[in-house]
């Protein structure tokens, strides 16, 4: 390449760099509002309505003594094992039975449908309230749990039989607790 070629190449490079100046980007600003705040408000309202409905339902039920779980749901015993002090903990293996109904008593999943299950505590794909509920029962106990939708399957449902925002009545029976060998 001769001198003129080098000069043309150098000139082209200088002008091409000059045209590609990068401008300073302004920071992206995020403000919480609008749709986010509306969603939060709607969820709070739904939770309040469900809790009021459940508490009214509990008040009308004079046959059972309900307990507040401390996890946002309520329960009563069908069978109580006063001889045991052993509760399930994370990593234990349980043998259990359960059934799921809506709050009107319509069966969604029967005990026959769900069958006897092995449940690895806190390692299975069940809804949040289920994980907390099994830890409240001892071997040989059976109880009915009333879950508001936010402790059950929430907004998404189970994508099969349980729809969006459905509170549930779940009966759980712990048949056997196998304590974990993990220390």
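Q: What amino acid sequence fits the structure above?
A:
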């Amino acid at each position: 390449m001769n001198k003129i070629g080098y000069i043309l190449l150098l000139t082209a490079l200088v002008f091409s760099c000059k045209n590609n100046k990068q401008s300073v980007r302004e920071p992206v600003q995020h403000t919480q509002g609008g749709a986010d705040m509306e969603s939060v408000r709607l969820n709070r309202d739904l939770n309040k309505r469900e809790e009021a409905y459940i508490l009214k339902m509990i008040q009308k039920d004079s046959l059972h003594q309900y307990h507040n779980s401390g996890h946002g749901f309520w329960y009563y015993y069908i069978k109580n094992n006063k001889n045991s002090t052993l509760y399930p903990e994370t990593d234990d293996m349980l043998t259990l039975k359960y059934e799921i109904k809506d709050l009107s008593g319509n069966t969604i999943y029967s005990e026959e449908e769900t069958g006897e299950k092995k449940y690895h505590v806190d390692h299975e794909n069940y809804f949040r309230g289920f994980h907390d509920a099994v830890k409240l029962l001892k071997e040989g106990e059976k109880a009915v749990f009333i879950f508001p939708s936010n402790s059950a399957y929430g907004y998404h449902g189970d994508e099969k039989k349980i729809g969006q925002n459905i509170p549930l009545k779940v009966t759980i029976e712990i048949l056997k607790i196998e304590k974990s060998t993990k220390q």
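Q: And what stands out in the fold?
A: The radius of gyration is 29 Å.
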